Amino acid sequence: MPLRTLMAAALGFALAIAAPAVAMGANTGTVVSVKVNMARILRINAPAATVIIGNPGIADVTIQDPQTLVLTGKSYGETNLIVLDASGNPIADTMLQVVQDQANVVTVYQADRRTSLSCEPVCQPVIMIGDDASFTANVIASSRNIAGAAN
């Protein structure tokens, strides 16, 4: 088999990091990772017509253009992503892992109440799954006030 054919086959079936996007091929067995509340670009090797997320509570995906998907982490955990072409044939079938960004995050426990702070360069409140409900509500209200003032 010629080297060019081998390289094309390897690229077509490999899941490789291509900063900042991920290139996807069919049935790779590789896990794609995305952080909670963050988005990631996925490039596929054929036009997508349908995308399926096994558990939409963990991640969401949208078709940006026929060969570009946008993956968003919604909650911690693992699920799968299936991409089909217009004929219903699989283009990609891979596992997704949604993880928390631990860098510069400080978790504060006060009895049974938990709050999270992002401390780069100064500590600011951030919403993390598992934080105290009143803390989360206050952070959301503050964010809405700031967004309203900007309009």
Apparent shape? elongated
- Helix tally equals 2
| Class by alpha and beta content | alpha+beta
CATH level-1 class of the largest domain: Mainly Beta
Strand order in the sheet with the most strands: 1-2-4-7-6
Low-confidence stretches: 1-20
Instruction: Report the end-to-end length measured between terminal Cα atoms.
Output: 61 Å
Q: What series of H and E elements makes up the topology?
A: HEEEEEEEEEEEEH
Largest sheet: 5 strands, mixed
Mean pLDDT: 81
**Helix coverage percent of residues?**
10-25%
- Based on CA atoms alone, the radius of gyration comes out at 19 Å
Strand content: over 45%
Second CATH tier, the architecture of the largest domain: Sandwich
Would you kindly provide a written description of the structure presented here, covering whatever features stand out?
The chain is α+β, with helices and mostly antiparallel strands. It has two domains: 3-99, Sandwich (Immunoglobulin-like); 105-150, no CATH class. It is 19% helix and 46% strand. The protein contains two helices and twelve strands, in the order αββββββββββββα. It has helices at residues 3-13, 133-150, and strands at 16-18, 21-24, 31-35, 39-44, 50-53, 59-65, 68-73, 77-84, 90-99, 105-110, 113-119, 123-126. The strands form three sheets. A five-stranded mixed sheet has the order 1-2-4-7-6. It is elongated and about 55 Å long.
Defining traits:
2 domains; disordered N terminus; single chain; alpha+beta; elongated; 151 residues; Immunoglobulin-like; five-stranded mixed sheet; 12 strands
